[in-house]
Amino acid sequence: MSWLAWLGLAVLVGVIAAVTGIKPKGTRHVAGTRMMGIGRLALFFLLALFAWLAYRARSGG
Predict the structure, then answer these.
(1) Is 60 left (phi over 0), alpha (psi -120 to 50) or beta?
(2) Which of 19, 25, 39, 44 is the most exposed place for a label (fewest CB within 10 A)?
(3) Phi and psi for 54 in degrees, rounded to 5?
(4) What is the pLDDT averaged over residues 37-49?
């Protein structure tokens, strides 16, 4: 696997952990905080932006 594939895998794991709110034992619970809510909103915005850019690139416009 190339370094880009490893980077993509790390990003995917990070996104899943951020969205689901999983955490290691002994750490503070932050899934319900406003900061995590804003992080999820930013993640959704970036996902929508990349989907739009991919659509525009594919349609040729």
Answers:
(1) left
(2) 25
(3) -65, -40
(4) 87
